[in-house]
Amino acid sequence: MLLDVQPGDRALDLCAAPGGKTPTLARSAGKNGLIVAADRHAHRLRAMREQFKRLDLRETRLVELDAAKTLPFAIEFDRILVDAPCSGTGTLARHPEIRWRLRPEQLRELNHLQSALLATALKQLAPGGRLVYSTCSLEVEENEDVVAEALRGSSGVSRVPAKEGAHSISTHLAPGVDAKSLFDEMGQFHVVPGAHQTDGFFAALLEKNGKVER
Questions:
Q1: Is 34 helix (H, G, I), strand (E, B) or coil?
Q2: Is the pLDDT of residue 165 over 90?
């Protein structure tokens, strides 16, 4: 919803498996849009292909790739979703085993991976295009630090207050939760378990300077 895909958009779901997000992007882009769902694991892409057939989303392109390296596309995308692999600390209520499995040094490793994913994705973003970087982590190393590094290393890219999309999520919230309360002072989406009756999530909206071309 924060990505705000429009009819006819070229949209890339860079870390698409298991495929729950791509259908929403595809329906928003419509028949004249182009949707590419990418993942590095072939078996997960096969499962997604069967899922998309059941949903009648046969036009969605599935691509096996390593998103931390240069992407193999000759086109740029109007919208890119980078729902990055992360520690999952925002989901501890449902996955308590994470607290026993996660090591402190893994946060540094994940930070390096997430930064590489975001950097390669931004290179594929069209002028005027928008990208959402998201995790289900509560850790600064995986969220704010990754976005800050991307902004330092990518000229012509700026952070857009994601709270512009608050209206689009209002109807999906628990009673009494104000959509605007889910965004921090920099306009980044930030929900915390307990406080917002949900898992912990982070999302930042980035935009590449320039005019959108159709």
A1: strand
A2: no
Q: What is the CATH number of domain 10-208?
A: 3.40.50.150
User: Other C-beta atoms within 10 Å of 35: how many?
Assistant: 27
- 136 catalytic per annotation: yes
CA neighbor of 187 nearest in space, from 207, 209, 164: 164
Calpha distance 191→130 (Å, rounded): 21
Domain spans of the chain, in order of start: 10-208
- The CA–CA distances, whole Å, from 157 to 60, 125, 148, 205 equal 28, 10, 11, 10
The one catalytic residue among 71, 118, 136, 138: 136
**Structure token digits, residue 83:** 């729902």
Give, as one character, the DSSP assignment of residue 181. G
Between CA 179 and CA 170 the distance in angstroms is: 6
| 9-30 residue pLDDT tens | 999 999 999 999 999 999 999 9
- Look at strands 77-83 and 125-135 and give their pairing: parallel
**Cα–Cα distance between 150 and 186 in angstroms, integer?**
15
pTM across the whole model: 0.93
CA-to-CA distance for 183 and 177, rounded, in angstroms?
Answer: 12
The answer to whether the CB of 170 falls within 8 A of the CB of 179 is yes
